[in-house]
Amino acid sequence: MKIATFNINGIKARLPRLKEWLAETRPTVACLQEIKSQDDGFPADEFAELGYEAIWHGQKSFNGVAILVDGSKPVEIKRGLGIDGPKDGEGEQSRYIEADVDGVRVVCIYLPNGNPHPGPKFDYKLAWMEKLRARMAEIWAEEIPCAVVGDFNVIPHDDDVWSPKAMASDALMQPESRDAYSRLLADGWTDAVRTLNPRGGVWTYWDYQAGAWQRDHGFRIDHILLTPELADRLEAVGVDRDHRGREKASDHAPVWARIRD
Question: CDD domains recorded for this chain (predicted)?
Answer without folding.
Answer: ExoIII-like_AP-endo
